[in-house]
What we know:
D-Maltodextrin-Binding Protein, domain 2, 16 helices
Amino acid sequence: MKKLFILALLALFSLSLTSCSGKGCDLLILNWGDYISEDVIVAFEEEYDVTVKVATTDSNEQMYSNILNRTAEYDLVVPSDYMIHQMKEENLIKEIDFTRLENYEEGIFVEGLHNLMTSNDCMDYYGYYIPYFWGSLGIMYNTKRNPEIEDIIMEYEWQVLFDRSILPSDTRVAMYSASRDALAAAELYYGYSLNTTDKKEIDQCMNLLKNTDFYQWGTDDLKIDISQGKVDIALVYSGDFFDAYYSDLEAEAEDNLEYYSIYAPKCHNNVFFDGLVIPNTCTNEDLAYKFLDFIIDYDNSYANAEFVGYCPTVQSVYDDIISDEEGWGDILAIEAYNPQLILDHEGSRPEVYKYLGKETYTYIERQFTRVIFR
C-alpha cells in the first residue's frame, strides 16, 4: 500500500470548504479526517464535471449534531454503525435505493462484513448505508523509550490503558476522546458488554476514565504522537496505525518506523464499520447516488483503500489485496487491519456498537462530559 503524501493539502482542502452554499459546490460530504483519497474525489469531479467539497469532523457525536442541527446542506455523511442506527431511528437519513446503483450486485461486499451487517445486531438499519470501511479498536504503542512495553501489552491487553502498576513508571498513556470509544475501553477492561445499558456499569466505567491519569486525550492526533514517540500507548482505531506508518514511509521517516506498532486483542473487541449515508440535509440526491456508485467501483474502491489504510469492504478488492504477495497483501494477515481475523478467531467475542436508545445516549454523553471537564 502506498499512501500519497498529501495530508496537509487534504486537511486544508477539507477545513476551508465546509459549505456548498453560494460557492459553486455540487456535492458536500461530511467525513472523518484523512478518510478519502483526493485522487478519487478529483476523478469523480472530472467524470461528472462537478465540484465536491469535504468537511471533516472527529466523532460520530459531532456528525450527529451537525445533521440534527442542519449545520450545512450535507449530501453524504460517513457515520459508524451505531450512529447510522441512531440517525435512522430519528429519521435523519434516507433508505438507499440500490436499484439506482449500477455497480451494486448481490455479494459485492466482503462475506464476513455482510454477515455482520445482516446480523440481529445490525439488521434494524440494514439498507440505509453503503459500507465504506471496517475495522476494530487497537492499542497503538511505541517501544523506543521502553522496549518491554510490547510484551506487557501482549500479556495484559486492555489492562495497560488503566493499570499503571504493570507499566514502567514513565509510560505515557493516551485515551481517545470520543465518548463511545473511551467508554468501550473501560468496558473491555472490566469485561462488560460494549452495549450495556446498566447505569451502574456505565458509571463504574466513567469513574475509571475519570480517575485514570492519562497523559493526554486526543483523536486523530494520537497516531502521529505515537509514531513520533511523544506518547507511548494509546487507544486508536485499527487503521490509524497504517495511516501513520505509510505517511512515515512516504516521508522516509525510518527512525519512527522501527519502534511503533499496533495490537488488536482478539478475544473481546469491537468490530466496526462505517457507512456512506444520505442525510435529510441532502440537496442533490442524484449526484449523491452517482458518488455512491462511483465509490464501490473496483478501481475507485482499490485506490481509496490504498490511501485510507482501512480494510476494504468490496469483496473483489479484498481478495486481490490478499493475493498481492508483492504489494500490501501481507497487511491483511494483521488482526488490527483485517477484522475478519477477529471474527474468525476461536473464542472471540467481537461486538458491534449498538444504538442504545435516546435515554442511554444522553446519559453517556452527560457522564463523559464530566470525565473530560473534571
